[in-house]
Design a protein that fits this description.
The complex is a heterodimer of chains A (about 250) and B (about 280). By secondary structure, chain A is mostly helical. Chain A folds into two domains: about 200 residues, no CATH class; about 50 residues, no CATH class. In chain A, about 75% of the residues lie in helices and about 0% in strands. Chain A is built from 14 helices and no strands. The longest helix of chain A has 30 residues. Chain A is globular and about 60 Å long. The termini of chain A are far apart. Chain B has about 280 residues and is mainly alpha-helical. Chain B has two domains: about 190 residues, no CATH class; about 70 residues, no CATH class. Helix content of chain B is about 70%, strand content about 5%. Chain B has a two-stranded antiparallel ribbon. In chain B, a hairpin with a 2-residue loop joins strand 1 and strand 2. Chain B starts with 8 loop residues before the first helix and ends in a 5-residue tail after the last helix. The chains are: A mainly alpha (about 250), B mainly alpha (about 280). Chains A and B meet through helix 3, helix 4, helix 6, helix 7 and helix 8 of A and helix 2, helix 4, helix 6, helix 7 and helix 9 of B.
C-alpha cells in the first residue's frame, strides 16, 4: 500500500511538474494520468473507466498563458486514486473529480507563483557564468514544489482515503442524488468552453450536426469523426479555390 | 577569416527536444523564459565553444518573458531563432535585441495557432473518441489517446522546428500571411465541433422524470410526467443540449468557468429540492 501510494504521489507530482512535454504533455489529461494510477494500484480496468469519467468535464478545457480554469492534472490522478481506494461509482467520481479540480486551482496558482523564485536564482547563477546551475534551477526545485503540494496530498489520500466512500454513503439520499445530477451536467462545461474558444458563428452548425448524428441516428463518436474529416477536406478544398469564401474567408 | 559556424543536426535535435522542457519551471513572472534558456544551451555552446563567460552572457538574452504553445506548432520559433543565432555567430549584423523582439512578436500568433491545433482540435477529438472507448471498458481508449497524441505532437513539433530553421523568418511570414493556415484551422475545427456535438448527446445527462404529477378526479387518475410529457415529446435529448447552450451563453457573458461550476452545483441541489417536493424523499 505504501509503495502504491508513493507511485501515485510521483505520478501526481509529474502531472504538474512537466519535466518534458515529450513525456508529460498527456499527463495533464485525466484519461491518461488516471489510467496510470489505475495500473499502479492494480485496478487498470476500473481506474481507466473512472479516469475517463473524470475527464468528461475537461473535454474542451483550454489553458492559455498559464491560466487554468480548473486543475485536471490534480483531479485526474487523485480523483481516480480516491475513487479506487474508497469504491466510488463512476457518476460520483465525476463530481468528486470536479470538486477536487476546482478547489485545487489554488494549488496551481501557488505552484506558478513560487516557481518565479527559481528564475531569479537561475539569473544570479547565469550572471556568475554558471550554466549548469541555471539548468538545475529549471528542472529540480519545481519538482520539489510539486511534490510538496501535489504529491504529498496524493500520498495521504491513497493511505487514508478508504473511509471516504462509506462516509459519502452515510450522507442523506438527496445529497447523493444531487451529486449524481451534477456529474451528469458537468460535461456541458467543457463542451461550452470549446464552443466559446472557437466562437465562429459560421462553424456553429457543425456542432449541431454532430449532436443530430449522435442523438437521432445513434452514430458513435468514431463514425462522427470520420464524417467530420470528410466534410473538413471537402470544405478546405472548396475554400482553397480562388474567389471562394465558403469558410475561412475573413 | 574564421571558418563558417554551422549547427550540427544533433544540436538542432537537442534544441528541439529541450523545447519540450519549456514549462518545467512554469511561473507567472516569465512563464517559459527559463525553460527556453535551458533549451538553447546546446546551440550557444556549439556556436561559442570553450568560452563559458560568453556562453552565459548569450544565454541571458533568453531569460526574459516568453510564452507560446511549446509542443505542437510553437517549436517553429525556436527553429527560426537557432538559424538567427547561427548567422549572428558568423558575424551577421543582428543584435540580440532583434532576436528577442522577433521571438516576442511571434509568440502570440503561434500560441493562437498552436493552442487551436492542440487544445481545440486534436485533444477534444482524441479525448471524445477515447473516453467513449474507455467508458465501455476498452483498453484501446487510453492507449490510442497516448500514442496518437504523441505521434501528432512530436511529428508536427519536429517539422515545424526544422521548417523554422531551414526557412528562417520567411517560413512564418508565408504561414501567417497567405491565410492558408486559417482556412485549414477552420476546416479541421469542424471535426472538433462535431465531436463535442456528439458528446452533448452521449455524455451530458439530465432527466426530469422525477417530476411526476398525479391528479385524482372523477374519471380516474391523470398522470403527467415532465420528462416524457414535455421534453421527450418535443425532442429527445433536448435538455442536455439546452444545458450546453445555456452554459455557452453564460460564458459569452464573461461568467468565469469556476462560477459556472458553482452554478451547476446550485442547479443540482435545486433539482433535488424539486424532487423532494415531488415526494421522492417522503
Amino acid at each position: 500500500m505504501v509503495f502504491q501510494a508513493v507511485l501515485v504521489a510521483l505520478i501526481t507530482t509529474c502531472c504538474t511538474w512537466w519535466f518534458s512535454h515529450a513525456v508529460t504533455r498527456t499527463w495533464l489529461y485525466p484519461i491518461w494520468s488516471g489510467f496510470l494510477v489505475g495500473i499502479v494500484m492494480g485496478k487498470p480496468l476500473e481506474g481507466m473507466m473512472i479516469a475517463a469519467a473524470i475527464n468528461l468535464p475537461y473535454v474542451g478545457f483550454i489553458t492559455a498563458g498559464g491560466s487554468m480554469p480548473g486543475n485536471p492534472q490534480f483531479a485526474g490522478p487523485v480523483g481516480t486514486a480516491l475513487a479506487l481506494v474508497s469504491g466510488l461509482d463512476i457518476n460520483t467520481a465525476t463530481t468528486v473529480g470536479v470538486i477536487l479540480g476546482s478547489v485545487t486551482v489554488l494549488v496551481w496558482t501557488v505552484y506558478m507563483s513560487v516557481n518565479a523564485f527559481w528564475v531569479h536564482m537561475a539569473e544570479d547563477f547565469l550572471s556568475k557564468g554558471n550554466i549548469r546551475a541555471m539548468r538545475f534551477c529549471n528542472y529540480v526545485p519545481s519538482f520539489f514544489v510539486s511534490l510538496l503540494i501535489n504529491g504529498v496530498p496524493a500520498f495521504l489520500i491513497v493511505m487514508l482515503g478508504a473511509p471516504f466512500g462509506a462516509w459519502l454513503q452515510s450522507f442523506p439520499m438527496w445529497i447523493v442524488d444531487a451529486f449524481g445530477i451534477i456529474g451528469g451536467i458537468m460535461p456541458a462545461l467543457g463542451i461550452a468552453m470549446l464552443l466559446q474558444y472557437l466562437d465562429k458563428p459560421k462553424l456553429t452548425p457543425f456542432f449541431f450536426m454532430g449532436w443530430i448524428l449522435a442523438q437521432f441516428l445513434g452514430l458513435s463518436t468514431m463514425m462522427i469523426t470520420a464524417i467530420g474529416a470528410v466534410i473538413a477536406v471537402l470544405l478546405y478544398n472548396q475554400a482553397s479555390k480562388p474567389n471562394s469564401s465558403l469558410i475561412g474567408g475573413e | 577569416m574564421a571558418e563558417e559556424k554551422k549547427l550540427s543536426k544533433a544540436t538542432l535535435v537537442k534544441n528541439w527536444l529541450l523545447t519540450y522542457s519549456s514549462e518545467t519551471c512554469y511561473n507567472y513572472e516569465r512563464l517559459q523564459g527559463l525553460g527556453n534558456t535551458n533549451a538553447f544551451v546546446p546551440v550557444i555552446r556549439e556556436l561559442y565553444p570553450g568560452d563559458e563567460a560568453k556562453q552565459a552572457e548569450e544565454l541571458k538574452n533568453f531569460l526574459v518573458f516568453y510564452n507560446t504553445e511549446p509542443s505542437w506548432m510553437g517549436t517553429i520559433i525556436n527553429g527560426i531563432t537557432a538559424a538567427m543565432e547561427e548567422k549572428r555567430a558568423n558575424g551577421a549584423e543582428i543584435t540580440p535585441d532583434e532576436v528577442t523582439t522577433l521571438r516576442s512578436a511571434l509568440m502570440g500568433p503561434m500560441a493562437g495557432i498552436g493552442d487551436t491545433v492542440s487544445q481545440s482540435i486534436a485533444y477534444p477529438v482524441l479525448a471524445g473518441i477515447c473516453i467513449q472507448l474507455a467508458l465501455a471498458g476498452n483498453f484501446a481508449g487510453p492507449i490510442i489517446f497516448e500514442i496518437a497524441y504523441k505521434v501528432l505532437m512530436l511529428g508536427l513539433g519536429y517539422n515545424m522546428y526544422m521548417l523554422g530553421y531551414n526557412k528562417g523568418r520567411d517560413a512564418i511570414v508565408d504561414l501567417l500571411s497567405t491565410g492558408v493556415i486559417n482556412k485549414l484551422l477552420d476546416a479541421v475545427s469542424i471535426v472538433g465541433l462535431m465531436v463535442v456535438g456528439s458528446m452533448t448527446a452521449s455524455n451530458v445527462k439530465l432527466d426530469l422524470s422525477f417530476m411526476n404529477f398525479t391528479w385524482a378526479n372523477a374519471l380516474g387518475d391523470i398522470e403527467f410526467n415532465v420528462q416524457s410529457g414535455v421534453f421527450d415529446a418535443l425532442l429527445p435529448g433536448l435538455l442536455p443540449l439546452l444545458v450546453v447552450l445555456a452554459t455557452w451563453a453564460l460564458l459569452r457573458k464573461k461568467v468565469k468557468p469556476l462560477m459556472l461550476i458553482i452554478i451547476m452545483f446550485a442547479l443540482g441541489f435545486l433539482l433535488v429540492g424539486i424532487k423532494g417536493l415531488c415526494g421522492a424523499y417522503a
